Amino acid sequence: MPKKLPGFIGFPDKKMKPVIIPDFFFTDLLPQIDDLAELKLTVYFFWLLNEQTGELRYVRGQDLRSDEVLLESLNLDNDLRTPLAALEDALERAVARNTLLRLEVVTGEGEEELAQDWYFLNTVKGRQAVAAIRQGRLAELQAVLPEDARLQVERPNIFKLYEQNIGLMTELIAEQLRDMERTYPPDWIHEAFEIAVSRNKRALRYIQAILKRWETEGKDDEDGRSGQDSARQRKKYVPDEYSDIIQR
Question: In which residue ranges of the chain is CATH 1.10.10 found?
Fold first, then answer.
């Protein structure tokens, strides 16, 4: 059971530091947010950035996951998720909604490899910072990254893939998407979405059927093949349940 917090007794008399939240949040973003954990994360993110100074403002995922105040706020009534699970969902939703920009950084090699996730607010400055980092043009980066750090090739996360190509996401669909991420390689998932979109079969069960077929029958490596060969290969993997309506 979530721990019961004492009731709010009001703001103190002492001078308090203001937190800047743009009006665009209230007029355009707030009506779109339909998840309480995502809303709490978004508002908290504004406060975290307000606490920072300098041009390069971002929050590391590891800092969010160890933030006791944030985690306590995500210890929600009638929510079977742990605070950490609620945070992970909120991050995925905020990235899929384009509120936050995620930058994935890897350090080390082999068993020493360590992945980090950094989050920027999707403002002009945030977009410029991410672009500069990807192009190696941000001198400030040298102070916070080891020399062996490298950026991962960015792919749209699975929540963003779904909402951009299929439709609105529900809790049930989110759970199915997480199962797909745990079961199949990212390249398979990305290509299965591409096949579904190219055939105008924008349904999660169609994508799941493609992945299941690849899992049971194998998926040939298409590296080096011509576009025509690739198209023939994709036709081969049309799920059986759709074979009566899709020409191979």
Answer: 18-154, 155-248
SS3 121: strand
How far apart are alpha carbons 42 and 89 in whole angstroms?
12
Residue 117's nearest CA partner among 163, 65, 70 is 65
How far is 234 from 215, CA to CA, in rounded Å? 15
SS3 content of the chain, % helix, strand, coil (to 5): 50, 10, 40
Q: How confident is the model at residue 223 (pLDDT cuts 50, 70, 90)?
A: very low
The class (CATH top level) of 155-248 is mainly alpha
Residues 64 and 71: their CA atoms lie apart, in Å, by 8
pTM of the shown model: 0.59
Which spans in the chain are helix H? Answer: 23-24, 36-50, 61-65, 68-73, 83-96, 124-134, 158-165, 171-183, 186-198, 204-217, 227-236
